[in-house]
Amino acid sequence: MTHVADLPPLRRLLNAHDLSPTKALGQNFLLDLNLTARIARAADPLDGCHVAEIGPGPGGLTRALLESSAASLTLIEKDLRTAPILAALAETEEGRAKGLRPLFEDALTVDLLEMLPAPRAVVANLPFNVATPLLVRWLRDLWREPGAYRSLTLMFQREVVDRIVARPGDRSYGRLTVLTALSAAAAYRQFDVPAQAFTPPPKVTSAIARIDARDSLPGPLALFEAIEGVTAAAFGQRRKMLRQSLKSVFPDPVALLEELEIAPTARAEQLPPEAFLALAKRR
Ligand code: SAM
Question: Which among 19, 20, 25 is the best mutation to test ligand 1's pocket, defined by most ligand atoms within 8 Å of the CB?
Fold first, then answer.
C-alpha cells in the first residue's frame, strides 16, 4: 500500500488535475512540505483528537496531519476538483489508519460538534474571504459544549492575528479580540508566513494563530450572543464614547456604566474583555 511519503509532489498534482487556484474560493496553496509540517507541529499535541481540516485543497497540510498523533482526520472542502487528490490520500496507509474522510461541503454551514466526537481540534490554512466568520462560528461552539475544541490552529492574514491577540489600547484591539479572550483560555501568535510561500502569493503576509479552549463553559450561549451585541455596538462606533455608542443596546448606558465603575467617557478600545463581559451580563 502507498505511504504518504511516496505520493507525487504537490505541484505535479496541481498540473495533473488542472487545479488552477481560484480567487473566489480564496485558494492560495502551500506546496512546501517543510512548512506544512511546521504548521501541523504548531497544533501539537493532537494525541487522541478528532481533527477537522478546513479547505485541504491539494492536501499539503493534510499530508502533515496524517503523520501527526491525531486519532482521526476529517476534511471539509468546497472545491470538488480536489476529489481525486483527496481520495488518493484516503487510500494511503496513513489515510486508512486515521479513517481519512473527505467531505465536500461549505465549512460555513457544517456543524463540527455533530460531525465529530470529542476531543476535537481544527487545523487549517483558511480561505481569507471566510476566515473571520469561521473563527466566530468555532468560538460560538465553545459556548455550546464544554471544551468543544481542544485547540484551533489557523492561518489568517497577519492583520487578523494582530486583532486576535491584541491588548486593550492597541490599534488592533477590537471585537475579535474580546470574543476570543472571553471564549478561550489563551490565544497565541505562532509564526508569520511570507506571501512567497503560497501559490499564488497573496498581497499580504499571513500568520498562524493558536487558540486553546477552556475546560469549562464560560457561560450560556445566550451570554456569547449578548457579548456579540455589545461589542458590535461599542466597536462599530469605536471613536465615540461608550455613553453614546452603547445607546443602541442599553436604555440608560450612563447609569449602567457608572454602576459597573466604567467611565462613561471611555472608548471601546480602552475597555478590557472582562468589562465587556460585565456589560453583556446586563443585557
Ligand atoms: N490547505 C490548502 C493549502 O494549505 O495549500 C489550501 C488552502 S487555501 C488558502 C483554502 C482552501 O479552502 C481552498 O482549498 C478552498 O477551495 C477551500 N475553501 C474555500 N471556501 C471554503 C468553504 N466555505 N468551505 C470549505 N472549504 C473552502
Answer: 25
